[in-house]
Amino acid sequence: MLRALERSLREAGFQTATLEEGRVLFNLAAVRGDRKIFVKVVENVDSVRKSTLLELAETARRLEAEAFLVAPREAKGPLLDGTLYRRYG
Fold first, then answer.
1. DSSP string covering 23-52, please?
2. Rounded to whole angstroms, how far apart are CA atoms 83 and 16?
3. CATH number for the 2-78 domain, one of 3.90.1150.10, 3.40.50.2300, 3.40.1350.10, 3.10.20.30?
4. 56-64: Cβ within 8 A, 24+ apart
5. What is the DSSP letter of 69?
6. What is the C-alpha separation between 89 and 76, in angstroms, rounded?
7. Of 5, 25, 46, 81, which shows the fewest CB atoms inside 10 Å?
8. Percent of the chain scored above 70 by pLDDT?
């Protein structure tokens, strides 16, 4: 999923960098002009603590970036494709 997202962002003209080693606040950073995006990619949206998401949001805010959490499923089952969910905010 991370590679596909990175590929899509590159095709849209973003420069990207991935962070895959260890526990990281975000897995993907992308920049195009003044637009900056941080993405945390996980298998299960419920596996990410609220404090982590709040830290990601605050880091993005301070750096004038957007933050996203991307996951294919939650504890109850799969999430809908093409749907944007709002969490803790």
1. S-S-SEEEEETTEEEEEEE-SBGGGS-HHH
2. 23
3. 3.40.1350.10
4. 56/25, 56/26, 57/89, 59/25, 59/26, 60/36, 63/36, 63/38, 64/34, 64/36
5. E
6. 21
7. 81
8. 98
What does the block give as tokens for 24?
Answer: 């990281």
Q: Collect all residues with Cβ–Cβ distance below 8 Å to 89 and sequence separation of at least 6.
A: 57
The three-class DSSP label of residue 9 is: helix
The pLDDT score that the predictor gives to residue 1 is 86
**Phi and psi torsions of 61, nearest 5°:** -60, -45
As a whole number of angstroms, the distance between CA 32 and CA 53 comes to 23
Q: If you average pLDDT over residues 11-18, what whole number do you get?
A: 97
